[in-house]
Structure formats: structure tokens, C-alpha cells
């Protein structure tokens, strides 16, 4: 009997989740079914996640963004964790990963996250298993399977499984500049070295498939050997693991389990598209879920930017989901504003790629905002902005009054030099129509529009731009 979205799709059934996804993506439900059936897209939707609003991850659909949340040794309060979930969803996360590694009752926190989350919840079960033993070497096959099963029963929609890192890959990391930077990867490597045995998540992969098939948990095959620096990008270790991930993708599909594959990391700009194309080839088009990648290593404190650049290129090349990076990356635990900055950066990257790829309806947003901007409809601009609160706060910092909400300028260029106002006045006056090759631009009426427009204010009141901040009602849009 079909249990997973993949199995249903293969049988030709359009599930209610597929219907919902089609509605959200503005596409035909049959197209959704085909993409899922072919493994080109996943709908992470655990049977036990009642609060979920189904979504889809695949290169033919809008690019998704994941935000990491979770308790650490220093933050562990349930309320605080739910606040993190709320913040992530509020600022546009399409999925969240609960990466709790310490503190508090993690079972309770995970359950609360699932109960309250309208977006898919992902986890790394290896972290919880690691917490239950004193030493990495004490991790047993049974414990790993037990933790995975318990989390599947709780309603986790997708899990990062570090099954691709094998004993034979480890020597390939010896010459690396930054070794193994994946947390799960470093744990598995240490386990294999100390126990002298093959990766237990690889050894038990088929049993994990059985659990995932029963609850419809989606694999997120972890890239344990992702490069942690530009110097290590595209090395033998990374690509050897990718080949294993390609094999595991086929195994999971044989079990009717949905799969996405995780990717780097730190990659120079000129290699990003090539890496996406390689993953798509090796993993037969399974959705690629990338962390960044950071395209330079030199900017701690700004890694939401270094990585969003790589993320935009990766998404344009076919990556389906982007795992956000905050400004605190490599430096500390992100706080609310860091989450906000990270998500904004990644939603920009995702949307830019959607526009570039011609995703249905993506450009409409840009066009609507541009129209509001040219019409000086400030309220609509704020509403349409990716981060409305920040857009309005920045505008109102210098021009706070209500009378500036339809002003034909802002404090950036000021009244006299507002190019859009100048342009509109010229067009309204019909001056633009008269321009041709013979026009003497210096003497043209358009040049004369570089003064405050009639009706904006009395010439005598034209202030020095440096005074705008304190002028209050002296500068206003209309003289009403
Ligand atoms: S003043 Fe400059 S930035 Fe502001 S609306 Fe006019 S053209 Fe745009």
C-alpha cells in the first residue's frame, strides 16, 4: 500500500498535498505529480505533522529557503524555541531545521516545534543520538535507528542522514586546509576511526528507508565532506562522497522514499554552477539543497552576503532549496536580527533566481513594486517589500510624517534631485516626446524640470538637503 507521496505519485494519484502545492506554485497538479513521481521534487510531509501546509522542493518550482533553529547549551527554554520558530516563519522560511544539540528537553521542544509549525520540520537525528552517549564510539546501530524511528513517529518531515561518508573517503581529506567541517560528518569520521567499522548510517541505510517509507519522512542526504574553505572545494573527498550519495538516492527511490541531497559549503564563484550540474547528473535530478555556498572566506560577520551570492548562482543553476546563513556564521549563535538578515538575504537570492528562471508569477512582484515606486505610493511599496517593517523604518527615519507617504521624493536624492519626479514632470509636460537627435539637451525644457515641481512647495521653503531630517512639515508632497 502506498504510504509516501512518491509512491502515490508513481501510482498516478494526485494527493491533497499535491493539489495544495499546485495551488501555491500556480501550476497544474498533474505536473506536480509527475515531478514527484520522477524524484525531481519532494513534498516533505510526515503523516503525523498535522499543522503542515504542504510545500514542494524541486528545481522546476520556486526556490525554497530553510532556516536553522534549535536549542543549544546556552539556550534551551521551550518558549524561546517557539519564538525562534515564529521568527523564522515570520521572515519567510519555507522549512525549518531543528538542530538542537544541547540543553532542555529536546523531545518536548521538537514536538512543540512540529505541533506549531506550518512549514516542514527537518532534523539531524545524529545530534540527539550523540547526546545520549558519553563517547562518540559508544554510538550503536540500534541507538541510531531508535532515535530515527522516534523522531519519525513524532512527525519530523525530513532528516539529514550522514550516510554518504565512508571509511575509504577519510584518507582523501588528509591534505585539506579545513578538514571535515560538517558536524555530523566529523562525528561519523571519528566513530569509524575509533571503531574501525563502516559508517553505521550507511550500513543500516535500508532499515532507515523502511522507517522513512512508513511515516513518509524525506531523506536529506548529508554532505559530510563538504568543503569548509575555497581551497577544499571540488576535491576528491567531496566528489567521492557525492558518488555515494548518488547510489543512496537510487536505494531510497527503490524503497519509495523521497530524497533530496545536501551540498556545499564554500565554493569559488566560478565553480558553483559546475557543482550543481554535477550533483544533478550524479543524483539523477534529485533536488539539491545547498548551504550557501560561501564564495569567499574573507568576510566573517558578513557571511550572509558571501553565501547569498553563491546561493543565487546555485539556484539559477538548478539548486532547489537554500539553507540560510546568518551574519553570525563561524562566529556565534544567531539572534533574532541575525535570523532576519539571513532570511532576507536568502529570500533575495531565491527570488532573483526565480525571476531569472522565469518561474510563474515571480516577476509580477518586481513589477508591482516598481510601479508603486514610480507612483510614489510609499505605503504600497512598504507592503510589497520583502521586509516591509525594515523598508518603512528606513524611510521613516528621515521622513516620518504621514504627509510623506505620498511625497514625490525621499531623503535619498531630496526634492530637487528626485529623478523619478523630474522624469514624470517632463513626461507630463510632453517634453519627452519632443526629444530627438536634434534636441539641444542643455536648452531643453527637460533640463528645467530639475527644480521643485509646481505645487510641491513654495520656492522660498526649499531647504538645504542636510536640513531635511529636522524640517518636519516644511517639506511636503502636496500643498494640501
Ligand atoms: S528621491 Fe531619489 S531615491 Fe527617493 S524616490 Fe526620488 S529618485 Fe527615488
How are the SSEs ordered, and which strands pair?
Blueprint: H1 5-10, H2 16-25, H3 29-37, E1 41-42, E2 57-58, E3 64-69, H4 78-90, E4 95-98, H5 106-116, E5 121-123, H6 125-131, H7 141-154, E6 158-161, H8 183-195, H9 200-203, H10 205-215, E7 218-221, H11 236-254, E8 259-263, H12 269-282, E9 288-291, H13 303-317, E10 321-323, H14 336-357, H15 362-374, H16 378-384, H17 388-398, H18 414-417, H19 419-428, H20 431-434, H21 445-448
Parallel strand pairs: 3-4, 3-10, 4-5, 5-6, 6-7, 7-8, 8-9, 9-10
Antiparallel strand pairs: 1-2
The structure holds iron/sulfur cluster (SF4).
Number of DSSP helical runs: 21
Bound molecules: iron/sulfur cluster
What fraction strand? 5-15%
Average pLDDT, rounded to a whole number, is: 89
- For the record, what is the CATH homologous superfamily label of the largest domain? Radical SAM ThiC family, central domain
Return the structural class: alpha/beta
- Give the CATH level 1 class of the largest domain: Alpha Beta
Main β-sheet, spatial strand arrangement:
3-4-5-6-7-8-9-10
Q: Helix fraction?
A: 40-55%
Cα distance spanning the termini: 71 Å
Which key features would you list for this structure?
single chain, 480 residues, alpha/beta, TIM Barrel, 2 domains, eight-stranded parallel beta barrel, two-stranded antiparallel ribbon, 21 helices, binds iron/sulfur cluster
Amino acid at each position: 500500500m502506498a504510504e509516501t507521496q512518491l509512491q502515490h505519485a508513481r501510482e498516478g494519484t494526485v494527493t491533497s498535498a499535491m493539489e495544495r502545492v499546485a495551488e501555491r506554485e500556480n501550476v497544474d497538479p498533474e505536473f506536480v505529480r509527475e515531478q514527484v513521481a520522477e524524484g525531481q521534487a519532494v513534498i516533505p510531509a510526515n503523516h503525523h505533522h498535522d499543522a503542515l501546509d504542504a510545500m514542494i522542493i524541486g528545481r522546476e518550482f520556486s526556490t525554497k529557503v530553510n532556516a536553522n533553529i534549535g536549542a543549544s547549551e546556552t539556550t534551551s527554554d521551550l518558549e524561546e524555541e517557539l519564538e525562534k520558530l515564529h521568527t523564522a516563519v515570520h521572515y519567510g522560511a519555507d522549512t525549518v531545521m531543528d538542530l538542537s544539540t544541547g540543553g532542555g528537553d529536546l523531545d518536548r521542544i521538537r514536538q512543540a516545534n512540529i505541533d506549531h509549525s506550518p512549514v516542514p520540520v527537518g532534523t539531524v537525528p545524529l545530534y540527539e543520538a550523540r547526546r545520549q552517549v558519553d563517547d562518540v564510539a559508544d554510538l550503536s546501530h540500534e541507538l541510531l535507528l531508535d532515535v530515527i524511528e522516534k523522531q519519525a513517529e513524532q512527525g519530523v518531515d525530513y532528516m539529514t542522514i550522514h550516510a554518504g561518508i565512508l571509511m575509504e573517503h577519510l584518507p582523501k581529506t588528509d591534505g585539506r586546509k579545513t578538514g571535515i567541517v560538517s558536524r555530523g560528518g566529523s562525528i561519523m569520521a571519528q566513530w569509524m576511526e575509533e571503531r574501525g567499522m563502516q559508517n553505521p548510517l550507511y550500513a543500516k541505510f535500508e532499515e532507515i528507508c523502511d522507517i522513512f517509507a512508513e511515516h513518509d519522512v524525506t531523506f536529506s542526504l548529508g554532505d559530510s565532506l563538504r568543503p569548509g574553505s575555497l581551497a577544499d572545494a571540488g576535491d576528491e573527498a567531496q566528489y567521492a562522497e557525492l558518488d555515494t550519495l548518488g547510489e543512496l538516492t537510487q536505494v531510497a527511490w527503490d524503497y519509495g522514499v523521497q530524497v533530496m541531497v545536501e551540498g556545499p559549503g564554500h565554493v569559488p564563484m566560478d565553480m558553483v554552477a559546475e557543482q550543481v550540474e554535477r550533483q544533478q547528473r550524479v543524483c539523477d535530478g534529485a533536488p539539491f539543497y545547498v548551504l550557501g555556498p560561501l564564495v569567499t572566506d574573507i568576510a566573517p560577520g558578513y557571511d550572509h552576503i558571501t553565501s547569498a551570492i553563491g546561493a543565487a548562482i546555485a539556484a539559477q543553476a538548478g539548486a532547489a532549496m537554500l539553507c540560510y546563513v546568518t551574519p553570525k556564521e563561524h562566529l556565534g549563535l544567531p539572534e533574532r536580527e541575525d535570523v532576519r538578515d539571513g532570511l532576507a538575504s536568502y529570500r533575495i537570492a531565491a527570488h532573483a533566481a526565480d525571476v531569472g528562471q522565469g518561474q510563474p508569477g515571480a516577476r509580477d512582484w518586481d513589477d508591482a513594486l516598481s510601479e508603486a515606486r514610480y507612483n510614489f505610493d510609499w505605503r504600497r511599496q512598504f507592503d510589497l517589500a520583502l521586509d516591509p517593517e525594515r523598508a518603512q523604518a528606513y524611510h521613516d527615519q528621515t521622513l516620518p510624517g504621514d504627509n510623506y507617504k505620498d511625497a514625490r521624493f525621499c531623503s535619498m536624492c531630496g526634492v530637487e534631485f528626485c529623478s523619478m519626479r523630474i522624469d514624470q514632470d517632463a513626461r507630463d509636460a510632453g517634453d519627452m516626446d519632443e526629444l530627438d537627435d536634434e534636441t539641444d539637451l542643455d536648452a531643453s525644457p527637460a533640463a528645467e524640470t530639475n527644480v521643485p515641481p509646481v505645487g510641491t512647495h513654495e520656492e522660498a521653503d526649499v531647504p538645504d538637503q542636510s536640513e531635511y531630517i529636522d524640517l518636519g512639515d516644511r517639506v511636503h508632497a502636496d500643498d494640501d
